[in-house]
Specification:
By secondary structure, the protein is mostly helical. The chain is built from 10 helices and no strands. The protein has one domain: RNA polymerase sigma factor, region 2, helix turn helix motif (Rna Polymerase Sigma Factor, Chain: A, Orthogonal Bundle), CATH 1.10.1740. Helices cover 70% and strands 0% of the residues. α5 packs antiparallel against α8 and α8 packs across α10. The longest helix has 23 residues.
């Protein structure tokens, strides 16, 4: 008997539960299936969350190639730790926490080893996030430090509350508020300068 015939036979005899297609299942069901080892469920979670995770990484690091690597590493880390994830919670904030922390670490490491002169590579093309925000805002965000940039991105571009950001980054809420205020003040100063 072929694999297809076995699958049909298993479904008919009730050994395999036939449900909605993965693309129509809710996130908790997909997380449960992925925790149980379903590669298809993991792929569907990846498909659903990739755009936002990649966008968050890019908004923090402003390097398309690095953002892609960081987002991929974040997914790999998340899927390795999926058995410890509390599926009663939404997956998106957990993924954003992982990706933003990795992006901050990457930005700090890059600041320690700046590229200069002929070694500097041209900036890779930005994803559609740059087009949505405008070049001035993207440039102003790039000038912020990674900690301030991450908080501004999480709050104003990804829509998390200061309390959610504090929990995500494991920071006191006052620190989040302070970084947010300083980041917004710096953005305002940059955007109000003549010639920007």
């Amino acid at each position: 008997m072929s694999t297809e015939e076995l699958s049909v036979q298993d479904a008919v005899t009730g050994r395999v539960r036939v449900g909605r297609p993965l693309s129509r299942r809710g996130e908790p069901a997909l997380v449960r299936a992925a925790q149980g080892g379903s590669a298809e469920a993991a792929e569907e979670l990846f498909r659903r969350h990739w755009p936002a995770v990649h966008r968050a990484a890019w908004l923090v690091v402003h390097d398309a190639a690095a953002a892609e690597d960081i987002a991929q590493e974040a997914f790999m880390s998340a899927f390795r730790s999926l058995d410890r994830f509390d599926r009663r919670r939404p997956l998106g904030p957990w993924l954003h926490r992982i990706v933003v922390n990795r992006a901050i670490d990457w930005s700090r490491a890059r600041a320690l080893r700046p590229e200069t002169g002929s070694d500097a590579l041209p900036e890779p093309a930005a994803p559609e996030a740059a087009a949505e925000l405008g070049e001035e805002i993207v440039a102003a965000l790039a000038d912020l430090g990674p900690e301030h940039r991450a908080v501004v991105v999480l709050r104003h571009l990804l829509g998390y509350s200061p309390g959610e950001i504090a929990a995500m980054l494991e920071l006191p809420r006052g620190t989040v508020n302070s970084r947010l205020r300083r980041g917004l003040d710096a953005l305002g100063d940059q955007l109000s300068e003549p010639g920007s």
